Amino acid sequence: MVPWQVICDFQNQVSEDPVNRCRMAQSLVTAETQEPVLLARVFSAPDPIVLLTVPLNVFLKPGITMQIDSGKKSVFGFEICNETGCHMGIPLSSDLLSAMKGGLIARLTYLDANGVEITLPIDLRGFSKAWAELIDAQQ
Fold this sequence. Notes:
Blueprint: E1 5-8, E2 22-29, E3 36-43, E4 49-54, E5 64-68, E6 73-76, E7 80-82, E8 85-91, H1 94-102, E9 105-111, E10 117-123, H2 127-137
């Protein structure tokens, strides 16, 4: 698992607004093939959002369940699949942001096309620090 990183794209951007150029990101790859199995990106404004991408061949209807540490499970729906994977945007409410800042791990669970349950971790250590760096980068 790659730790949280703040990434700012300063070239080839339509917008001059730094808020639209920076994001936080964490990726998870398989140990054997180094194929990506999860990409989590966090954008801070104007409406904070977590964008998740998982590989194709997902059973879309049940969506994805997120649980931070031993907290409440929340279900979110997939929005679109394309050649890069299946994607969803999760609004980053103040409650979710606080939980992610204070949490250790978020577990994402979904079903593959064969109905097999897949659970992937998002390491939340370093999330608070990366969030602060993201906000600073957009000043």
